[in-house]
Each structure stands twice: as structure tokens, then as C-alpha cells.
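Problem: given the chain below (236 residues), write out its structure.
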Amino acid sequence: MQTTEALYTYEIVTKEQPALIEKAAECLARSFIGVDVSGKWVQEPMVGQLNLGYEDFYQFTKEYLASTIEQGYCAVALDANNHVAGVLAGDTNAPEIIGEDIFEGSFYDMNVILRVLEDVDKRFIEDYKKRNGQEIKDGELLHLFMLGVIAEHDRHEIIQQLGNRLITKASSQGLKAVLGEATNPKSIRVMEKYHHMKKYKDLEGNYIVHKYQDNSKLNRIPADVSDGTYIIIREL
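Solution.
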């Protein structure tokens, strides 16, 4: 029986690979909008609730990759046919709070997701400043922003291998921690199990979480699917 390492090859995408950037964007957009995995529909809860479209999400993803790819934190899993089966993309920018709607037209509801992410990021930034006496700087933390796997099999192994590459690189470059906004319990479990990330607690000992039940646009997400978006972290 073949091992996962033999089934997939892994690489970090560079700006000299525009076709691979497009494939990575397609994989991420497909996985967020929803993929059929062995007869079970898997999608990001907020994207599903807001019914965002593939084309809009693909453009958003492609623009994110184009703006961050030079930092070297987009890893892909390629199958035997050179198709992208999984992507983990991040950046080392300090979290930014825009505080206003930036998406329009058919993608307007993406603003709902942006506000959820900004809510937890803002609370994390404030807590970080209290702990460390200073603002987060660019190049200090690896922010894991998007994870997408469209492979039917070996999904957890792909996540493990992708994360290993980015976290090892972040550690070797002297970054302080790996940070993410986990929007569902499955993501949290996988990142806990394979990458030792944990739900972040503020100085008062509370999780930083945006509860979907308190959001009028997202309160129809079933609690057993996901109760909210959590900050997760691993110090390096």
C-alpha cells in the first residue's frame, strides 16, 4: 500500500508560478463553497449560510494569494496528475482592522465574514498589547488564513503535511507564534491534533470567540455544525 507521502508531493508556491497560484485559488474556493467527500457535503459554515458564489470567492482568494505569495507561506499538495488536492495559505502581516464594508454586489455578504474575523482579531490585538506592552508587528506571527482540501482520501494527512511545512518555516525564520481564526470545530480538532494549536484564552481566561447565535446573519448555523469563530494559536 502506498503511503501518503508517495501519493502527494508538497511545495511552497512562488510568484513565478502563476498557473499554480490559480490552481491553489481554485482549490481553496471549491473547498470553502463546498465539496462532496465520499457522499458527505463539506463546506465552511459561514460561506454556506450566506450562500456565497464560487466565482466571487475564487476572485477573493486569488487576490489574497497574489498579495501574499512573495512571503512564502502558501503550501500546496499535488496529486500524481499534478492537480492541487490541498492548500494552506497564510501571511506574516500584522492583523488589520478595516472597520467598514469593502465588498459589494453579489459578494456583499462577504462583509459579514470580514466583520466576524475582525471582531476576534481586534480582541486578540488588544489582549496581545496588554500582555506584551506593544502592538503586533509585521513579520512577528504566521497568520494561517485559508485551508482547503478537495481530496476525498488522506485529507488529514494532507493537512498535517501542509501545516508542517509552513510551521517549520515560520519557526526557522524566528516568528513568535502561529495564529488562525477557526470557524468550525472540525478545523479546531484537526489543528489541535496535528499542529498543537489551541483555542486562545485572553488575560481574563476567556476564549476569544464570535458566537454565531449572537449574529443575526449567522444565527441559523446549527450549533452542532459550529458555534462560532475562535482564535487558535501555537507559540513557536
